[in-house]
Each structure stands twice: as structure tokens, then as C-alpha cells.
Amino acid sequence: MNRPISARPSVSIKAVDKIWTPEGRTPVEALRGLEFDVAPGEFVVLLGPSGCGKSTLLYMIAGLEGVSGGSIVCDGLPVTEPSAERGLIFQEASLFPWLTIADNVAFGLSIQGVLPVRRREIAIEMLKRVGLGDMLDKKPDELSGGMRQRAACARALAMKPKVLMMDEPFAALDVQTRSRMQDFLLQIWRDSGASILLVTHSIDEAIALADRVVVFTARPGRVKTIVPIDLPRPRPTRDPRYHEYRDMFTELLAAEVDRAFAEQEAA
Ligand SMILES: Nc1ncnc2c1ncn2[C@@H]1O[C@H](COP(=O)(O)OP(=O)(O)O)[C@@H](O)[C@H]1O
Ligand SMILES: [Mg+2]
């Protein structure tokens, strides 16, 4: 990566705490003193044991949940509410089943006040970009899981987000589809210039995709370490360095998963 050091971060997470206080239950400290930046156009992968607050962090960056302490600043402005500049994609594509995929993609634009003809044009353009140009008038349940996730990407990208957040987007897909979706994602990432924050459980997915991997500790989630992946893309899986990264992440995660288990047993 070769970008000026002075570039304003696209996301800046500053000493962020999050305590969930569900009614009638004991509060849960999900995140503690979390701190890192995402540079414009950077691809950051979040890796950590389940329950360490990764989804919680994405909700807060998306503006769907407030922080309990610290702040999240996107492009110089504190996050206080959702914005079209910050898109979020979940594991199960959350498309409206009663709309065609073209109408699904156009839907978000109608909220932004884009006129109907232009909406349709943008929807077609985005669906072509994700390889679904001949599926415009299909309903989501007529598509495969991988196609639905591509349609969800098209819908998010139509809004021209500066930050695209993806919460285990490929976890439900089979191995072959998953690997093709990773290639596809790298391509649309380059085209869009957006920053991406992607949560995964998969060490190989993290190495395949990331500029930097943020490894979380067990709950309360903190930054355990941040590892830049210093390999060309596509990642050379036979390179000894690839396997060094793999071993390192396996060890880092195992330690945290053990801690998470120990804590659960104690509770
Ligand atoms: N809406 C919620 N209300 C109460 N607790 C929650 C809520 N969402 C998540 N949590 C708790 O916060 C912790 C972190 O959850 P989450 O962010 O989903 O972790 P991850 O995505 O890393 O698996 C967990 O202990 C979870 O039970
Ligand atoms: Mg999660």
C-alpha cells in the first residue's frame, strides 16, 4: 500500500467501550478500550473468538448502536446515526423476498431520493458489475446463496459507501463458492475504492483478503494485535510466509478461544 500518511482515516475507533445492558439480565461487557484506524481504501479483516464483540463493533460503526465509552469517527465526523456512506452486509443476504433483485438494489436509492429511471439504471449497472446482469428480474429465492450475496453487495455498492462492512458474509457458502466470492470481493473493492471491514472466523479468508488483520482478544474484546499481510495478491498459498501467517493466527486465536472457554466454564 502506498498512500500518504497524512490521509484522514476513513474510520477511527478511539478507546471504544461497549456494555450491553439487556433488560432484566446482567450487563455484558462486550468491548473494552478498543482502538484502531482504517485508512481510506484499506481492507481490514477482524478475526477473533466468537462473542468477542466483532458484530457489536460493526453495528456501532454502522450507527445502529451507540458506544458506552470512547468514540467512532468516520471521515472526520463522529458516528451518531446510520448513513448511506457506511454499508453493512450480513451472513444471510437480507434481500426483500418479494422484490426482484433489481428492485432490491434500487430500493435503497429511493430512500436517497434518486428518481425511478435513474434508480433502475444504477441497479442494472451494479448488478452487471457483480455478474448478475441477466438475473435482474429474478426473485431472491430463485438465486443461489452466492448470487444472493452478490446481489446484497450490489445493493450496498449502489449507495456508493465509503466504508463497506461485512459480517461473516461468506460463512454460509460452500468452499468453492466462498473462494470465488473472495476473488469477486477483491475485484469490487479495487473498483469501488471503498474501505472494507470484514469479520471472519476463517484464518485463510483473513490472509486471502486483508491488508491488515485485527486480532481480538476474548470478551471483553480488545485489540490483541494488528498484523499487516505483506504478500502480493492473489496470495501465494505455497509461499512459506503464507504458512507463517497461518501458524501465527492459529496460535493467537487458540490462546483466546481457550480463554473464552475457561470464562464460560467459570460462569
Ligand atoms: N443486543 C444485545 N443485547 C445484549 N447482549 C448482546 C447483544 N448483542 C450482543 N450481545 C453480547 O455481546 C457480546 C459480543 O457479541 P457479538 O458482538 O455478537 O460477538 P461476535 O460477533 O464477536 O461473535 C456477546 O456476549 C453477546 O452475547
Ligand atoms: Mg458476530
Automatic annotation (TrEMBL):
For this protein, the record's PROSITE patterns field holds: ABC_TRANSPORTER_2
**Keywords assigned by UniProt?**
ATP-binding, Nucleotide-binding, Transport
Gene Ontology MF, one: ATP binding
Question: Which residue range or ranges hold the ABC transporter domain?
Answer: 13-243
Under the heading Pfam families, the entry gives: ABC_tran
Q: Which family does it belong to?
A: Belongs to the ABC transporter superfamily.
| The protein's name | ABC transporter ATP-binding protein
Give the organism, scientific name: Prosthecodimorpha hirschii
